[in-house]
Amino acid sequence: MITDAETNYLFLANCLPKKQNAFYNRFERVLNDCKINFGLLPNTKDIWAVDYMPIQLDVNKFVQFDYSPDYLKSKKWSKSITNVSNVCKEINIRPVKSSVIIDCGNVAKGKDNVIMCDKVFKENKHIKEKELINNLTELFEVEKIIFIPSDEDDIFGHADGMVRFVDNDTVLINDYSKEKTSLKRTIRLSLHNAGLEYIEVPYNPYDNKKALDAKGIYLNYLQMKGVIVVPAFEMKEDDEVVKLFENVFKGQTIKSIESKEIAAEGGILNCITWNIKK
To answer: How much of the chain, in percent, has pLDDT values that exceed 70?
Structure first.
């Protein structure tokens, strides 16, 4: 599987400049400063590109899942679902298609392993758990899939705001010291059983007025080859996170960008980006 750290080209939804113009202008400057090559995905209906676009396994190999999450079942939100097949056709990508229901923000990608929240089982009740696990392991072409509990307050059930790979042996996780003991214990146990070490990252969404707001969740960063862009929220944790990342990802360029307006919509940097290796 292609990891984020190996990617060298970035796509953003073409509706992002219109829906979040001020943020897009700031982000464009950061991407240019970091010398990140990027383009816009055509015919998109929402800005959360990582959720509906395929997973890249190799330079010319992609897997496209069924993007029909339960939180978009209403008529109001179903109209916001992008036709991924049309987008892929426009950018000359021919993915292998799977009928498994996954929004790919729930896929934390390692080289040989994948971490997902257990919401994938809820979304695919029509498939037996063992069959689903075997199916996903084959589709992702990894040795194993590690499942962690979904955060009860997160309607999306996405792993990308809870855990990210540093390398094959180590992950970053949120500092859940203020969360329920059961959540902390189960996540740590899942990682321990998988043989993974973890590093805690500051986490402070506690003053957010809406449950949807992702402000204070720093794990939803953009990672590409040699570069990491972390969200900032005008909070005291902003500087702490940058210093931590500079220590963890030595030799890489670490940038930050004010992200409060997109966080208020329910996602941050990993959510709006689809980065691949060309």
So the answer is: 100
Long-range contacts of 128-136 (CB under 8 A, 24+ apart): 132/100, 135/98, 135/100, 136/100
Q: Are 99 and 126 in contact (CB under 8 A)?
A: no
Maximum C-alpha span of the chain? 48
CB 51 within 8 A of CB 67: yes
The domain locations on the chain are 4-276
Identity of residue 30: V
Do 149 and 117 contact (CB within 8 A), yes or no?
Answer: yes
Nearest to 45 by CA among 15, 90, 87, 88: 15
Evaluate whether 139 touches 63 at the Cβ level (below 8 Å).
yes
Given CATH 3.30.420.10, say whether it is the number of domain 4-276.
no
Q: Is the whole model's pTM more than 0.85, yes or no? A: yes
